[in-house]
Amino acid sequence: MALLPKLGRHFPLSRLGLPAQYYYPVRIGQLFNSEYRVIGKLGYGGYSTTAWLFKICTHDAPAVKRKLEIFRYFNTLSTANLGGLLVRTMLEEFDPLSANIAHFRSAFRNRRLPLPLMKLLLVYILHGVDFLHTEAKVTHGGTYGRPIFGFTISALEEFEREEQTDPSPRKIDHLERVIYTSRELVPKEFGHPVLCNFGETRLGQSTYTDRIQPFQYRAPENEKVNIWNVGVMDIFEDKNMLETRGGPKNERSNLLRLAHMIVLLVAPLQDLVRGTRHTPWRYFDAGGDVFIIMANWKDEVEIPDTILESLEEKLDGEDKA
């Protein structure tokens, strides 16, 4: 049995910042709902969320198979019998997920994916985006530069063995709360990528004017703005296509971002400008029927001297054409 390593003074609890009453003190080895045992801590995200790996625990494997079969059968039934509401059903059946593109890119030089791999990845992403547009009718609102890859069961088993033989360092405070460090899950084999990160998803409308996207990709259109967030430049070149900071204080600026959009994608159509609620004429004059309105730019920020082709630095010849 391995000794449980403790975190030293270099890991002060004051950095955690979140009062104890606002989060659940998960412990490695804890059993939830008599079936799901905590194997280890995978990491953490925004808004004080953490990610944990669970294992379905039972001493009777045949019973698990039978349970899964009956749940699948229940999900095929459509009934008006009120008793159907009183029978437990399976909400979802899924395979655990693995590393995202950000982790995957770190294995390559300069964090740039090879072109053949990039093309294959885009096929999966664009099929997912097409489903969001044509079937789900939702606006994702996030970026696709971090889709998740599926992984094999062997990676989960290795993670569990490592936690058993080399337990994660932890710290116990005066309230008996246990704070763990994260253990990286590094699969040796990957499956196909899936879109995730639905924290900014919008549902029920076809057009939006609120801030539904990451700052550098924000666009005042309908649910098809999802295509803006594919992030080809981020994945392939490891950089953003649009500048979002500038000036003496290097501050984030809507105006600078808009200037880069204009020089790379030409000026927006008048219909698009008119459909923007947030004072579009601060940046453009009425312009009549003039659609390309470079000359009508009103603000003091200089439109950058950049062309789209110059931003791509990796391709040559026909690939770049």
Number of helices: 9
Return Rg in Å: 25 Å
Q: Helical proportion? A: 25-40%
| Percent in strands | 5-15%
Largest sheet: 3 strands, antiparallel
SSE topology string: EEEHEHHEEHEEEEHEEHHHH
Low-confidence stretches: 288-295
Q: What is the name of the CATH topology of the domain at 97-152 and 187-241? A: Transferase(Phosphotransferase), domain 1
CATH superfamily of the domain at 97-152 and 187-241: Transferase(Phosphotransferase) domain 1
Question: Based on the structure given, which CATH architecture of the domain at 97-152 and 187-241 is correct?
Answer: Orthogonal Bundle
Structural class designation: alpha+beta
How far the N terminus sits from the C terminus, by CA atoms, comes to: 60 Å
CATH class of the domain at 97-152 and 187-241: Mainly Alpha
What is the number of E strands?
A: 12
Strand order of the largest sheet: 1-2-3
> How would you sum up the global shape?
globular
Mean pLDDT, all residues = 69
What are the key terms here?
321 residues, alpha+beta, Transferase(Phosphotransferase), domain 1, 3-stranded antiparallel β-sheet, 9 helices, globular
Please describe what this structure looks like.
The protein has 321 residues and is α+β, with helices and mostly antiparallel strands. Among the domains are: 97-152 and 187-241, Transferase(Phosphotransferase), domain 1 (Orthogonal Bundle); 253-321, no CATH class. Helices cover 26% and strands 14% of the residues. The protein is built from nine helices and twelve strands. The protein has helices spanning 61-74, 101-105, 115-136, 153-165, 232-237, 254-265, 270-274, 308-311, 317-320, and strands at 31-32, 36-44, 50-56, 97-100, 138-139, 148-151, 170-172, 178-180, 190-194, 202-203, 245-246, 251-252. The strands form five sheets. The chain has a three-stranded antiparallel beta sheet. Strands 4-6-9 form a three-stranded antiparallel beta sheet. A hairpin with a 3-residue loop joins strand 1 (31-32) and strand 2. The protein is globular and about 65 Å long. The protein starts with 30 loop residues before the first strand and ends with a helix. Mean pLDDT is 69; it is low at 288-295. This is non-specific serine/threonine protein kinase. InterPro entries: Kinase-like_dom_sf, SRPK.
